[in-house]
Amino acid sequence: MKIDYVKTVCPYCGCGCGLILEVVDGVIVKTRPDKDHPVSRGSLCIKGWNAHEFVHHPDRLTVPLLKKQGKFYEISWDEAIDVATTRLRQAADTYGPDAVAGLSSARCSNEENYLFQKLIRAGFHTNNVDHCARLCHGPTAAAMARALGSGAMTNSIDDFTGADLVIMFGSNAAETHPIIMGRIYEACAKGATLIVVDPRTTEPAKNADIHLPLNFGSDIPLISGMIGHILDKGLADQSFIDEQTQDFEALKDSLSEWPMERAAKICGIAPDMIEKVAQLYAKAKNACVVFCMGITQHSCGTANVHAICNLAMLCNQVGRPFAGINPLRGQNNVQGACDMGALPNLLPGYQDVTNSDVRAKFESVWKTVLPQTPGLTVTEVTAAAGEKVHALYIMAENPMMSDPDINHVRERLGKLDFFMVQDIFMTETAKLADLVLPGACFAEKTGTFTNTERRVQLLRRASLPPGDALDDFTILCRLAKSLGLDFNYKDPAAVMDELASLTPIYGGINFERLESGGLLWPCPNPDHPGTRYLHKGSFSRGKGLFVVPEYTPPQEMPDQAYPLTLVTGRMFSHYHTGTMTRRSATLNHEADKPFAQIHPKDAKVHGISQGDPVRVSTRRGSIVLAARLTSDVRPGSLFIPFHFSEAPANALTHEALDPVSKIPEFKACAAKLEREKSK
Asked: Greatest CA span in the chain, whole angstroms?
């Protein structure tokens, strides 16, 4: 019996915790925490402790599958590669380059994401490449890049423990980022003040010094009220504003629209409480802002993030240790997929596709001519399917669970001439594909992930993919060779070396340097130690930009027909579309059935008791699931996790988009509730 212990990185949330996989004769039997890991420090959440359980699941895809007359048949890899490249090229030749689109993956490695976007751009001469960051932190990237010069978390995870005040907007980190929540609780144990801004009474809210249960989608009125009070009391750092920012006067002038009475009425928070929180933030020596999808998943998501940037710059709470603006990334490598250029308007390292000098640099190395027009986003690709987009290649994404209004998604995907999916399981999306390629999971590949604090870390292969499945690096290289591209990489380390040569923020990163815990980018040269916090001394863009945020209420408000507000989100024991966690016996035991959180007052009105089957409906569809009565949700609202395919929450959500980032408004739509009659 041969036993190995392999250090790697957790495949779930953006914390990027360290795992040790115990491997017996090639089979992973146990996950242990890495006590020396700089992020997790010997701790793991329930998902991390059980990260191995899905790896050897019998549902794993093991051979390429081609659909003929509605049924899948096993085929060889040679035939699969030939079908894929022939059909993709056929779409481009028939309709033009932009008839092809690709969706990359926050669950795949940096090297695989780099190769994927390179394949789409160099192989088909289109910028139609995107990934699921569009559905979670698209507004973060758009607003923070414009205001500060970088869309990334400004500080390190360790910096949370030195904050005097932590204010959390729309983040239930206790369930979605438990290890980071532990750092925040460390700060609280040292005397830091915790303020939670969230319509729901989450665990962080219950443990906070102050909980602001604002009305849905009213963050801009709240923050505008705070900013107005800070200015009225002379608490802004005027010297910092004068020296390091621009367009402050425009913001100041806009506050005439937000007298405290109006701001308080819209957000539903008493004026004296808004004033108290504003003073606490402005007077704190080190105030740290943390936010997540309760801020971004709105039709004014980009404006919401601009409001947060304005608040931080106003009080000189950015560009310093223990402070900053810290969006928590939801998936293990969503930061890395963005860094790698899996975005329709940006090449690797956030280099603009419209910049001719940038394109020339990449063209020289890639030996191709690159398109200069930004491509389509995730949501735009779906809308264009069968019209502008005729062939779609998805790598390890599951839009039939993660995208809004999935009945519409199903309809649009059905209009494609050719649809291929590369994944580890037959997902809800893969079932609709013409061609399915079996890939490898995190434990079966070598490469890197970049966590929410910009830490680039090594993942190491612990076992082989099942059957004839291949790691995604190999699949992409074979597809590229079939297309006539020069993807002659010896291994993923060679991909990182090419990336470093083209991408300044990764310029000093290579696999050898990552052996001892990883590096935080920007790391511009081989002697650079990495960067703990951004914008030291000046902003990446030069001067920080104040942007007046335009407030718009949720696009679909409750009415007589649909009197409740539906909110969707995540829960502690499951992850994203449930593809992996629902194939983990331990995690599925924790929550094996879909449910809706309902306030007892609403339950009483509808004659609903705990555990009763209920039907939740919107203008787009309805689902049946169990009632879970709790005062953690507000009267007049419902909360449904989106992990359960048998009652998919995104059958209910709508397609209203933020006009800048194109993120859907997952956090508010009108719904109705009924007790499901027994059949």
From this structure: 74
